[in-house]
Design the sequence.
């Protein structure tokens, strides 16, 4: 059974801002995002975040990975993408835990576990955004050197955290698995 | 009725609805087979076997196919907002859906129009959306892990990827402080199941129970072991168990299911789900 999306009348609150050098870049980015079904709203950035021009684009911060990739593919320029509130940097705490024949790498809310003998990804856990089950299915039971980076296929902040775990895990594997 | 709403990693589906059935290996929504993997499919499968144990109705589901692009997550929010009062579930459990604050508010407002307010549960990204939208205290059950309780305790974060570094700490002895902070900030639901090497069961901001046995460290690595706790809790509440009792039973049953099959970091979630009936029988 098919259901079609009705026009959304809710007030858009995205929690993220794209900052630009000049106004024209902001207008171009808005067109690109809207043409690709992303919600986006031109706003004045709050004074504490202002860099470059006086126009910013509010986006759903959770969609940062997909937005960054799309703007890059389209050759659109921007300064950076930031949360409107709170810390401006993605969490960079990575933790490592060894089991008998496996290594689990945790980056924020995401965990990737690979077999230290074969390099095969045996599990991915944590997170909550809808691209994680998709990445899980695509990466599971494959060798860590033979899968696409999560940030190249994912769309959300969970995918970016999984990417951090993946990069660390790949580094551990390339150094001999421990 | 337990109503589970979430997404599955398929591009070819918009929205499907129906009763769920898990045959021990495979998950079906009506006659359609859904891959039983980490995420909402694991949650539904765990809810199915739990409902069967308690001889209650199978979970009803509303699923959207979404690989992260968000289009069908938006459609799912809209469908829920338009239909939730007609469906009138006993328990509404929201799971992997792209977090959109405005749409979560819309669904919450619609849920309040049900003949009787449903028990509101959220896990994964629906918990992120509820907290970010300022609705945490309006929910009955959240099931965060250790990083997500830090997210609930951060007043500004709208996703666990942007929590303050000082809150994200490897020192689990600080977990009770994070629980208290999340409650004071009205970011926590009435019941929390904080999943970790020790599970904390929390009611109205107070830790009422901890579960740490059997100790199965491999469960943390297995994708879906948090989803199974949420699914079991939802099914137990729907079966009539008091919310704290359901939370404790789900946390213990998950560990016992892992113990029963000798879980390793390479174990797949469907094996854990297959052992839940045995673990429930022994409970």
Sequence:
């Amino acid at each position: 059974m098919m259901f079609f999306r009705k026009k959304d009348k809710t007030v858009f609150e995205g929690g993220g801002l794209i900052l630009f050098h000049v106004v024209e870049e902001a207008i171009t980015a808005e067109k690109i995002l809207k043409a690709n079904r992303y919600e986006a709203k031109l706003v004045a950035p709050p004074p504490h975040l202002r860099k470059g021009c006086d126009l910013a684009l509010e986006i759903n911060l959770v969609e940062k990975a997909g937005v960054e990739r799309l703007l890059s593919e389209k050759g659109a320029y921007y300064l950076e993408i930031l949360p409107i509130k709170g810390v401006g940097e993605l969490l960079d705490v990575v933790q490592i835990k060894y089991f008998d024949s496996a290594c689990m790498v945790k980056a924020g809310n995401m965990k990737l576990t690979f077999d230290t003998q074969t390099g095969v990804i045996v599990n991915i856990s944590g997170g909550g955004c809808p691209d994680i089950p998709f990445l899980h299915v695509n990466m599971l039971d494959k060798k860590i050197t033979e899968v696409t980076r999560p940030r190249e296929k994912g769309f959300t902040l969970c995918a970016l955290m999984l990417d951090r775990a993946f990069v660390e895990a790949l580094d551990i594997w390339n150094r001999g698995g421990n | 009725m337990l109503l589970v709403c979430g997404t599955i990693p398929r591009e070819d589906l918009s929205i499907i609805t129906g009763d769920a059935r898990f045959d021990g290996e495979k998950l079906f929504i009506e006659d359609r087979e859904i891959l039983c993997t980490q995420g909402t499919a694991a949650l539904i499968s765990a809810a199915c076997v739990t409902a069967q144990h308690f001889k209650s109705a199978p979970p009803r589901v509303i699923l959207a196919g979404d690989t992260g692009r968000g289009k069908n997550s938006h459609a799912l929010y809209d469908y829920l907002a338009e239909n939730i009062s007609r469906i009138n579930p006993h328990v509404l459990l929201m799971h992997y859906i792209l977090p959109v604050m405005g749409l979560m508010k819309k669904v919450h407002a619609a849920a309040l129009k049900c003949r009787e307010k449903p028990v509101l549960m959220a896990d994964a990204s629906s918990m992120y959306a509820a907290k970010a939208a300022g609705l945490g205290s309006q929910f009955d059950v959240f099931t965060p892990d250790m990083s997500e309780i830090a997210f609930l305790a951060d007043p500004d974060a709208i996703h666990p990827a942007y929590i303050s570094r000082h809150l994200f700490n490897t020192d689990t002895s600080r977990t009770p402080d994070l629980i208290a902070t999340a409650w004071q900030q009205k970011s926590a639901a009435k019941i929390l199941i904080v999943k970790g090497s020790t599970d904390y069961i929390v009611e109205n901001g107070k830790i009422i129970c901890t579960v740490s046995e059997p100790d199965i460290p491999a469960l943390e690595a297995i994708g879906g072991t948090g989803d199974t706790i949420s699914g079991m809790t939802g099914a137990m509440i729907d079966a009539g168990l008091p919310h704290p009792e359901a939370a404790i039973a789900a946390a213990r049953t998950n560990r016992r299911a892992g113990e029963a099959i000798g879980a390793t970091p390479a174990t797949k979630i469907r094996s854990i789900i297959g052992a839940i009936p045995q673990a429930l029988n022994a409970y």
